[in-house]
# Entry
Amino acid sequence: MRAELRQAMQRYVDQEILPCVSYALMRGRDVIDTACMGWADREAGVPLRRDHIFRAFSNTKLVTSCAAMLLFEEGRFGLDDPIGEYIPQLGNRTVLKSGASSLSDVEPARGPITIRQLMSHSSGLSYGLLDPGTLIFNAYTEKKVLNPYASNAGLVDALAHLPLSYHPGTSWEYSVATDVLGRLVEVLSGRSLESFFAQRIFAPLGMVDTAFALPQDKHARLVRYYAGADQKAPMKPGLTRIDASPWPGAYLKPFPRQSGGGGLVTTLPDMIALLRGLLPGGQTLLKAETIALMMTNQLPEGVNVRFASVGEVPGKGYGLAGSVTTAPGPVDPPASIGELQWGGIAGTHWWISPRTGLAGVLMTQREMAFWHPFHFEFKQLAYHAAGR
# Structure
């Protein structure tokens, strides 16, 4: 069955749908299957290796959530504390009225944004990334909320006078909330996010190649980045190099922005180490009860994950570090109920399944490959291969 798993992933490479695939399947803390296939650089014919470095994008969110929960365990904040207590610019929010035609068409928020809502993407913040043409997308773009030349403090300043998309705690929208959480880590620790990550997470777990910017001697190990032939047709063959995305020089030199929502690069071994730090059977990064809390759906009854392009995703809630499968859908393995998982826009994915004892990492470098068909096929085959 593991041969079938390799063959399936190789097919995506051979058909020029993905440039490469790197994965590890774990039972408990043990890696029971791993493989690398395809190209770190298709044009130069460089085969992918385990030590090649990937743009993690939103895999970064797991690291930031762990950082926040380390501070939570120290009693530095409560999950239901208003974020305005620590970042005053985000207090006293307004919310866009239904059908608003301008940013001035707002009403007072019914309650403050809490840290729990930030961590579960139910705060009312947006991204200015996935819903082009909307009022809030245009506002985020105009304010340059995602500006790499602004620090995390600058990001908060950019958000200060923008309205929320909905009243905190009443809906779900993927957002810059985890970037705000990264700023909270800086405020509470008195250190940069990079410094906190390095000392409290990367060093203890042995994550030697995860960073916001790579030193010169690691540049050659960064996997090339590609766009598919058609964003609306994820299975259409054809790949084009886009190394200058998301901005020229990204990850190759330091930028003021240390994005807790999407700024890290990492490797397959480092992602394995991170997941091991959250799995029972050895020393963990956080207490067992903290990890269980992170894996518990935090959304109100009837609220699910939803995206502007696909609408609501039934059976997908959200915990404090990723999506929680409350009811497996047609593309999910039947045994995946209770699974915590998320991924990045370039096709880096991770998951932990407490009920089955399985965990996994699956990575590629193709723009808009989050929850791509290759991910769903891999997950189905991986569960089956592990007898789950």
In short: The mean pLDDT is 96. The first helix runs from residue 2 to 14. The chain is about 25% helix and 15% strand.
